Amino acid sequence: MAANTKTSRKAARYAVPVAVAGVAAATVAMVPAFANAGNPDLPKVTAQQLIEKVAASETEQLSGTAKISTDLGLPKLATGLLGGGGVAGGSADPQDKIAQLANGTHTFRVAADGPDRQKLTFLDGKDEYTLVHNGADVWGYDSKSNEAFHEKEPQGADKGREHKTGDRVGSPQQLAQDIIKQAGPTTDISVGDTAQVAGRNAYQLVLKPKQSGSTVGSVQIAVDAENGVPLRVQLLSSQGGKPIVDAGFTQVSFAKPAADTFTFTPPKGAKVTEGSDAKGKGQGHDKEFKALESFPGFDALTGGAGDKGEVTPLGEGWATVARIDTGAGKNLKELENDKDAPKEAKQFLNSLGEKVTGKFGEGRILSTRLVNALITDDGKVYVGAVTKDQLVKTADAAK
Fold it and tell me: Cys bridge to 105: 66, 69, 124, 303, which one at CB 3.0-4.6 A?
């Protein structure tokens, strides 16, 4: 949500919800799992022992089929913008596919051979979207549009740096370890019931917020009882119902994939876009603001936020809320009363949901099952994986 990348990263360090919210988008670029029926009888383990088992896992080779189902409870208009169908069609840039994967159910094939070679193929009927990481090269290919995206890591690039392109095809181990690492003292960690996942016996590591006010009920990570590989990640709502995110293997093998699995050559006639070219097309703003600015009538609301945005973390742990000062040129009330504003902008404004008031002033709340955002009339945004009541309470306390 921030327009200042450095400040955004600083804010992220304060909150488990940042990692958990990442499950809704980041797991789409990971390799987690679905459970089968049955609870195997396994030796008892403590949560600490299970965490150590995940951390000590050296399994880096696998292949199989997985599914991800995401139900964020987005407004109907926002769901339409994301696209409830498949990921094929349009740009082949991997970043452009993430939002589409944050809605609905998707099936994909996966293969991995260490940290430098991974392949994901998202299936959408007869159309496919393929993402390949092979050494310094990352390829994305959309069969429907016959477009390819290519990005090459600079020679000698820092393998540990944040947000490198190769991380888009990261491992399930990394996802689980990131969540566990950021859990901290505000999280209760325990071992739940055993399970069978893709025919393999698994323990379940359960992370629950100790604090009230979070939209997250728990995060459940199914861990292979034999090799410690996380096989499934489920994000459950504090309000109950089906999981917000349920991602995981339906079939898995830990044999070494064939070397040519990770070889990719663009098909004849495919349009190829280099990563450096894509970065030159309007990526001066953070993509969070870019999405809002690109919507008719909202460019004035963000004030061309770009680098003006300033993020302040409020609270801690699962109850963390980020306050974003957008530097807006026009507030919500002005937009609502603007007769010349595009009808699409007003439709989106109405989809934001209920109007709220408090010590912070007036605003509207965009509500989903995971993240709630309060957009105030004075150009501030409060956002977090917290309930609407908790969000308003935090905004009031910040005045």
Answer: 69
